[in-house]
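Reminder to self: tokens first, then the designed residues, so the page reads top to bottom the way the pipeline ran.
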């Protein structure tokens, strides 16, 4: 612990009870001061109350450039620049190729691709030399799960961003890497499949993994903390799988 003592971090999508909040809590435990953002103020307030000292919530939507400006203005006012950026905010929907609408496609790509691009692009003036940028990709980018085409394609784009940006920012010593979580037990699943279907969906997802269960948000948070710290100093443009063996076995 304390690998990030004195560092400043940003976590997008940090309010929901899932990967973002768990990561914010882990980075605070590692010594960082963390700014979290998300669209739902009530969930952000709950996250701040849960995490305690060391975190500031800035409500906002990563698809709105003005909201990102407000987020980074708050970071700038702290006066220490930015050492860790976890671009985590994302959305998903189920729709097969014959069902997907233009609205579905635009919503997924606006958040997952354009939103991620803007999140990192607007952070550039604040990123300290030697900073760590972690992009949240997905195992979905590597296999053809039916009805997940738009989401999978958007996450493949995020994985590609990590490679390109790692090269573009390496001159400043900024390390860009990606993580690819497998099935993780979060409240987002309830929204995706409906609360009445969530238990069965989670059970089937866990049973399909060699490890025999879904992952926990804190397990992904531990991987992000590693990529944010000097312990991963020789990793650049990499994609770390946190997937219970889903894409490995």
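Designed residues (249 positions):
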């Amino acid at each position: 612990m304390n690998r990030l003592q004195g560092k400043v971090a940003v976590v997008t999508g940090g309010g929901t009870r899932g990967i973002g909040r768990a990561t914010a809590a882990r980075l605070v435990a590692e010594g960082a001061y963390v700014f979290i953002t998300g669209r739902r103020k009530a969930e952000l307030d709950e996250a701040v109350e849960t995490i305690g000292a060391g975190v500031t919530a800035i409500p906002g939507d990563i698809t709105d450039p003005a909201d990102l400006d407000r987020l980074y203005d708050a970071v700038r006012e702290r006066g220490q620049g930015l050492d860790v950026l976890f671009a985590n905010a994302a959305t998903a929907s189920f729709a097969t190729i014959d069902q997907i609408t233009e609205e579905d496609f635009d919503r997924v790509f606006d958040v997952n691709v354009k939103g991620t691009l803007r999140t990192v692009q607007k952070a550039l003036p604040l990123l300290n030399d030697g900073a760590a940028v972690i992009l949240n990709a997905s195992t979905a980018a590597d296999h053809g799960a039916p009805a997940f085409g738009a989401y999978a394609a958007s996450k493949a784009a995020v994985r590609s961003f990590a490679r390109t940006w790692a090269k573009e920012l390496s001159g400043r010593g900024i390390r860009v890497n990606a993580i690819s979580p497998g099935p993780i037990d979060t409240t987002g699943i309830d929204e995706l499949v409906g609360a009445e279907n969530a238990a069965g969906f989670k059970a089937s997802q866990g049973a399909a993994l060699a490890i025999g269960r879904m992952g926990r948000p804190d397990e992904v948070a531990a991987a992000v903390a590693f990529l944010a710290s000097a312990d991963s100093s020789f990793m650049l443009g990499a994609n770390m799988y946190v997937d219970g063996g889903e894409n490995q076995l």
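The radius of gyration is 17 Å.
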